[in-house]
């Protein structure tokens, strides 16, 4: 074999091993877990998980390859394991999707967006939040972006569906900008979070808002539960940021001048889950079956939110 055909020690399966943090670029990264497989699909993996001493985030290193990601997601319907989706639908009324949709309407109000505001849902999955948002703000004009086609029930809806790879420079393929852009439970899935945030901000109108909701690896829940934390999903949640990771990354983007000036705040967020869904996600469904009722609570599951305003 030709010498330059050999796999370099800095790559595994053709994917380069990162030498710095995907959020803050610090070189102070070290492995925490080795050779973990996905929790639901035990044939997907193995993945090593590194942590950054500077911002505290965790990430798969190397990242899964594009081919691995595509084949993994094609085993899901609409970007989510079937088992999770059906558990979520079962407890739909009390879902966190409803909470996020309501929070987005409040956010639009706070930022004085008119009823006919335009919005973009990046990484829409099965369009759960988009569907609820378009009902709560019926005059608004919504667009979804994800790799897969629109789920069947959304094909006749007012919401436009665009098919793009959100790991790529998707902002190049979208001709307009939006007053409200959001990515809910998406940042942890993308292989280059900084590039993803730049693309989202490029599609946010000056004066408009970008909203993010994702796991927080510095949360108490994450520290207490370790690898049993439900957001720890090797190969699927390929990065787990902290509030510091998101702030540092946004500061860097702001300094780069690539998207103009931004203002932002990042904080923890309690999220509404039904108790039955929570027990399911914690692998305690048997306990749920012993409860004769369901209700929802705002759990400190260890999540964060960021509101970024383009000036
Ligand atoms: Zn870092």
| Number of spatially distinct domains | 1
Low-confidence stretches: 1-8
Question: What is the CATH superfamily label?
Answer: Vaccinia Virus protein VP39
Question: Percent of residues in beta strands?
Answer: 25-35%
Biggest sheet, spatial arrangement of strands: 8-7-6-9-10-13-12
Question: What Rg, in angstroms, do the CA atoms define?
Answer: 19 Å
Number of helical segments?
A: 9
Topology:
Elements: E1 11-12, E2 15-16, E3 29-36, E4 47-52, E5 58-60, H1 66-74, H2 82-90, H3 96-110, E6 118-122, H4 128-136, E7 141-146, E8 160-163, E9 178-184, H5 193-202, E10 204-215, H6 220-225, E11 239-240, H7 243-256, E12 262-274, H8 275-281, H9 285-290, E13 296-310
Parallel strand pairs: 6-7, 6-9, 7-8, 9-10
Antiparallel strand pairs: 1-2, 3-4, 4-5, 5-11, 10-13, 12-13
The structure holds zinc ion.
